[in-house]
Write a structure and sequence with these properties.
alpha+beta; Aldehyde Oxidoreductase, domain 3; seven-stranded mixed β-sheet
Length: 319
């Protein structure tokens, strides 16, 4: 029997390991024959992708593989989608989107993934990523939430009939609410803005993909707060059974909800590993994390109604 006294300090069991430098994070893992991946990211907030030329990058020293959105389409890979939409709860249908691993038609935010370069060393991968030539056609963009929700605003998703509105959801009894306000002695109007924020975890997102050809199975080492959920979502991307994918989440250096779900980078290292038959590591730089991490908040609440940005990868959808 374990006894605890009121007011007695309860020591955390992991402190000694972390304080003596014995923590084990994804970037600490080194597998045999491991190579390194780097993303090519869009510098535009909104742009049509007219052409992606990877010829120079493929010829660069140490380069093993360069993947594009066209390759993802050829391999018939799926995309990430929202974990929950209104129709899943019996509400009216919203506009569901699918985040592809790499974009082939349009960049929808600064940092949207266009290509993935894999080389023997991280330095070689970074150098080659700079050699990927992308022909962009810049499109109008907006930065503020309320501007994006206005009629006529540049669309994030061209096929969305409601502009940038993902869905509208009403909760409560309108008649009862109106009646309560009609009888109220005082009415107060209030506007609350909760700004968008970046999680900035001490450990940036990181992933290692390791494909086993003999068993046609994958192992993903990822900085994740939810490895079982990551396995479910990524299995759908590759159209495989969940028992073909093992997700290992070692020590996580901060998450704050950021690492609650998988990102395209987790699938990219697995995809590249299968093609190369070697393990592939990717670790976000701090600037890359600021561009590609799922942001939080961005909420405007006024007089009982709310507009909020729902971040699903690159989707800044409005509900």
């Amino acid at each position: 029997m374990i006894k605890f006294g009121i007011g007695q300090a309860v020591r955390r069991v992991e402190d000694r390991r972390f304080l003596t430098g014995q923590g084990r994070y994804v970037d600490d893992i080194v597998l045999s024959g491991m190579c390194h991946g780097v993303n090519v990211l869009s510098p535009h907030a909104h742009a049509r992708i007219k052409n992606v030329d990877t010829s120079k990058a493929k010829a660069a020293p140490g380069v093993l593989l360069v993947l594009t959105g066209a390759d993802a389409k050829h391999d018939q890979l799926g995309g990430f989608t929202a974990a929950m939409m209104p129709e899943d709860l019996g509400a009216p249908k919203g506009h569901r989107i699918y985040q592809q691993l790499l974009q082939s038609d349009k960049a929808r935010f600064v940092g949207d993934r266009i290509a993935f370069v894999v080389a023997e060393t991280l330095a070689q991968a970074r150098d080659a990523a700079d050699m990927v030539e992308v022909d962009y056609e810049p499109l109008p963009a907006v930065a503020l939430l309320e501007d994006a929700a206005k009629d006529g605003a540049p669309k994030v998703w061209d096929d969305n009939p409601n502009g940038n509105v993902a869905f509208q959801l009403m909760i409560g009894d309108p008649a009862a609410t109106d009646a309560a306000f009609a009888k109220a002695k005082h009415h107060v109007k209030l506007r609350i803005e909760n700004n968008r924020l970046a999680p900035v975890s001490m450990e940036p997102r990181a992933a290692i993909g390791d494909y086993n050809m003999a068993e046609d199975s994958y192992t993903l080492y990822t900085s994740s707060q939810n490895p079982h959920g990551a396995r479910t979502e990524i299995a759908h991307v590759f159209h495989i059974a969940e028992n073909q994918l093992r997700v290992v989440s070692p020590d996580v250096g901060g998450g704050f909800g950021l690492k609650g779900g998988p990102f395209p980078d987790d699938a990219l290292v697995l995809w590249a590993s299968k093609k190369l038959r070697r393990s592939v590591k990717w670790v976000a730089t701090r600037s890359e994390a600021m561009m590609t991490d799922h942001t939080g908040r961005d909420l405007v609440n006024q007089n009982g109604s709310a507009i909020t940005a729902v971040t699903m990868g690159f989707q800044r959808a409005i509900i």
